[in-house]
Amino acid sequence: MRIQATCYALGQAAGVAAWIAIDCKCKLRDVPMEKLHEELTKQGVHFVRIPKEA
Q1: Quick one: CA dihedral 3, 4, 8, 14, positive or negative?
Q2: pLDDT of the residue at 54
Q3: Is the dihedral of CA 51, 5, 16, 44 positive or negative?
Q4: Helix, strand, or coil (residue 45)
């Protein structure tokens, strides 16, 4: 149960990445991260930013 939300999020990101790859006619690994984040944000995904250690 603890990882269920993580699994849902991963599945959503994978589906959106696949859609972008098809739409852009590119390989999945070539999907721009910025485009993926943009589309996920439109779907209401909130990204947690962890500050880098000094």
Answers
A1: positive
A2: 61
A3: negative
A4: coil
pLDDT tens digits, 27-37: 999 999 999 99
In terms of Cβ atoms closer than 10 Å to its own Cβ (0-12, 13-18, 19+), residue 40 is middle
In angstroms, the CA 32 to CA 23 distance is 12
Half-sphere exposure of 28 (CA within 13 A, CB side): 7
Full-model pTM: 0.81
* Torsion (CA) 12, 15, 18, 22 in degrees, nearest 10: -120
